[in-house]
Amino acid sequence: MKYFLSVDMEGITGLPDYTFVSQSENNYEHSRKIMTDEANAIIGAAFKSGAKEVLVNDSHSKMNNLLVEELHEDADLITGDLKPLSMVQNVDKTFDGVMFAGYHARAGQPGVMSHSMTFSIRTIFIDDVEIGEIGFNSYVAGYFGVPVIFLAGDDCACREIEALIPGVVTAAVKESISRSAVKTLHPKKARALLAEKTAEAIAKKDSIKPLVPPATPTLRIEFTNYGQAEWAALMPGTRIIEGTTMVEFKAKDILEAYRAMLVMAELAYQTRYC
């Protein structure tokens, strides 16, 4: 059996705000250790449950957060930020299941540090389905016929994926009080929960169906201001929907839609100082 683990940071145990997830802040190095320990709890449980391979993709910010020397030695790691499929780089049909750890809710929703890729994005639609990172990454896995079987994060992230994928196993390691405050488990208890729920997810993986994307999806991204939409619309094949800050792109498949989202998000970031 072969599993893919995408590890974000905002949904890691005990982290309440940006001072714990930004590389320029004092709390960041402490957070990297907790993040790596939680990845190891999931990896170890996967191997105990029969996995032969576990591929880990660092999926937060510059995507170089996990402490490679402390990561489970039997897992492989993808690290670094320039990746065509970003948070789900190297997912393909050879995997038996995908797992998400440290995940958060989408932009505009309750949840610890909720957002969708960057703070310039207000919301994302694939056809008429409103999604964030959880939904988009699940669609990419589903394109390859691979189910997302497990998610760990705050309670809001867990509810978000449960609404998308029936039967998915979740582990809420903290409860959102506000976007920057949490009620959290102790890291030791969180690791035990992650191991337990990983084993449960692998045991029931055959009953969890992939989130299959539309064959030729229409991507719509609503930005927080018009300048961001203008920058995003520089990408060929896009258009700004009149009277809105929403940019539309008709993709040939979900992989093209995902890459288009990454490009538009980067272009929109040009207005970060305005």
UniProtKB/TrEMBL annotation:
Superkingdom of origin organism: Bacteria
Active site: H115
Short name of one Pfam family: Peptidase_M55
Binding site for Zn(2+) 1: D8, E10
InterPro entries hit by this protein: DppA_N, Peptidase_M55, Peptidase_M55_sf
List of residues binding Zn(2+) 2: D8, H60, H104, E133
Any one GO molecular function term: aminopeptidase activity
Keyword set, alphabetical order: Aminopeptidase, Hydrolase, Metal-binding, Protease, Zinc
Keyword Disulfide bond found: no
Name under which the protein is recorded: D-alanyl-aminopeptidase
Organism: Viridibacillus arenosi FSL R5-213
